[in-house]
Structure formats: C-alpha cells, structure tokens
Design brief:
The chain is of the alpha+beta class. It has a single domain, classed as 3-Layer(aba) Sandwich (Glutaredoxin). Helix content is about 50%, strand content about 10%. The protein has a four-stranded mixed β-sheet with strand order 2-1-3-4, with helices on one face.
Length: about 200
C-alpha cells in the first residue's frame, strides 16, 4: 500500500479547493498544466455545477444511516482537478458526507498532476482517471477502500462509448445527461455499500 502520511500536509478542504479554482479562474487559469481555452471552459462549467449541487444535494436515508454507524476516524483522500467534469459531479456529495459524519470522516483533496506518484498507484485501465477516492483508517493508516472515477453504471457506459469511438463532444453530452438523470443516487448507493462493507468486515 502507498504510504499516505506525506500527503496529509498537501490535502485541501473542499472549501479551500473551491477557493483555489475560483482564484485561478480570476487569473484566467485552471489547476492543471494544460491552460488551454477548452480546459478553462471546463473549469468554469464545473465550478457552476459544484455550486448548484451544493444547494440541491440531499443525502439518502440509507447513506445517512451507514455514516452514523461509523465509530472510528477516516481520511478520504480524493485525487482531482478543477477541469474534471466527473469530479465536479461527485465532490459535492463527498463534502456532504464529511459534514454528516460529524468528524468521523475528513475529506482531503489533492491535485492529481501534483501527486502523480500517488495517482500511479490507483490507475483505472492504465489511465490516471479522476476523481479517485482513497479511504484511510486514521488509527491504523491502512487503506480501507477506494472508489472512482465515476459510478459503476456510468463507467460501463463510458467504456462502451470508447469502444465505439464516439467523439469526445458526444461522450461529454451523454455523460452529463446521465448525471442529470441520476441525481447522485448511484454514487450515494455505492458509498453506502462500501461503508457498510468495511464496518462489517
């Protein structure tokens, strides 16, 4: 298992992450080395999506119940970037979970491109796909579970679209349509299951 201790100091809170993205956009920049117009536009859209989701997300009773069973303390490290559309759709849910846990879960966000050594331990089909969540038990420093880069049903759809060589533009539209219809339900169900599984292990 990759040792996470050196990542602790670099981890941002969700609020700090949002502030960083906002401040960089004010300078015409984003979080990545790629400062193209496309990446800047993605980042602007993502910030809007995050703000909207922050206001509309409600955690399911099932997820809340699983969170309330947690007795230890855990750090949820998430590798992310401001331009990543999947991160914008999922991070607001993780922030709600952190608040609901009342100190049992601490969310720490790390920029992927500044933490490639860590990212390379959590590749998806050989790719540095984000967001990637890594749950660490604070008492034992052991990795408990990982999640990401997107809900399983959507991941299957994305892999299918790639196999059919669908254009990036069409793929982005279909992914966004899926997120709009799902309304974070799949992510919440998957995380509730992951929490219950490690608590009963």
């Amino acid at each position: 298992m990759y040792h996470m201790e050196k990542q602790l100091a670099k981890g941002m809170t969700y609020t700090e992450y949002g502030t960083l993205i906002n401040n960089l956009l004010a300078l015409g920049k984003t979080t990545s080395g790629d400062q193209s117009a496309d990446y800047l536009n993605y980042t602007k859209l993502n910030l809007q999506r995050m703000r909207r989701l922050e206001k509309t997300i409600e955690l399911t009773p099932e997820l809340k119940s699983s969170i309330h069973l947690i007795t230890g303390t855990y750090t949820w490290f998430v590798l992310t970037e401001g331009w990543c559309g999947d991160a914008a759709q999922n991070l607001p849910v993780l922030e709600k979970i952190e608040k609901e846990s009342q100190g049992h879960i601490v969310l720490k966000l790390l920029l992927r491109d500044q933490n490639l050594e860590l990212m390379n331990n959590y590749l998806t089909h050989g790719n540095r796909s984000i967001p990637k969540l890594i749950c660490i038990d604070n008492q034992t420093s052991q990795e408990i579970f990982t999640w990401g880069p997107r809900p399983a049903q959507l991941q299957n759809l994305v892999m299918e679209l790639k196999s059919k060589s669908v254009s990036s533009e069409e793929k982005s539209l279909l992914v966004q349509k899926w997120y709009n219809a799902d309304k974070t339900a799949s992510l919440q169900n998957e995380l509730a299951t992951l929490i219950l599984n490690f608590l009963s292990a």
